[in-house]
Amino acid sequence: MLKGRALRERAVAIPYARHGADRDVHYREWLDDVLGEGYDLAAKDPPAAFLTTVSRSPLVTRGAEPGTYRIDLEHARSLRRRRAEVEAELADLVGVMARDANPAASLREHRTRLTADLRRLERETDEIDRVLARADPAAEPEVRVYRVA
């Protein structure tokens, strides 16, 4: 029985492995593919739970037609770029704050916002890595920028 993140990661890997990226798939067809792989959904209303959960994936965007969704690798790349930008900005900010014995409240607030953004981006890009590895275990992992604390 799948639910939550496990459902999202497995369900997103299936159409990527079958159809690749940038192909609109109706969520009912997508759900049929997931059920056809032998997965069960732990939900009172499986189609609704499936749609709600899968649409939260950082790899999924709406398709052109109603009820369709797609695996969007460009969106995944933009999340990776944003993560690298936030990591660099945070490193710069920490350097600036280290030179000031009493950094301004605005700098501390900015650091808090950047840290929260970075945590979210780390979760999303880590999920992307897991999904893509599940869909194509032989694929080369993308070059990643890691935060230096």
Give a brief rundown of this model.
By secondary structure, the chain is mainly alpha-helical.
Instruction: Write down the secondary-structure element order.
Output: HEHHEEHH
Mean pLDDT: 88
Overall number of domains: 2
Number of helices: 5
Poorly predicted parts: 143-149
Strand order of the largest sheet: 1-3-2
Distance between the termini: 39 Å
Main features:
149 residues, mainly alpha, 5 helices, disordered C terminus
Description:
The protein folds into two domains: 68 residues; 63 residues. Helix content is 62%, strand content 6%. It has a three-stranded antiparallel β-sheet with strand order 1-3-2. A hairpin with a 5-residue loop joins strand 2 and strand 3. The protein is built from five helices and three strands. With 149 residues, it is mainly alpha-helical. The radius of gyration is 19 Å and the shape is elongated. The C terminus is likely disordered.
